[in-house]
Amino acid sequence: MASIETAVVQPPQSATWQVHLNRCMWVAGVRSLMLQALHPIAMRGVWQNSDFQEDPFGRLMRTADFVGRVTFGSPAEAEAIGRRVRDIHRSLRISHEGGTYRVDDPELLLWVHCAEVSSYLDVVRRGGLALTGHQADRYLREQRRSAAYVGLHPEDVPGSRAEMAAYFERMRPKLRVVEESAATVRFLLWPRLPERLRRLSPGKPLYFPFGALCYYTLPAWARRMYGVLPEVPQAGVTAALRAFGLVAGAVPEAPYHRVFMPSTRRMLDGARDRLGELGYDVGKGLKGLTDPRRWAPR
Question: Nearest Cα to 240, choosing from 206, 213, 219?
Answer without folding.
Answer: 213
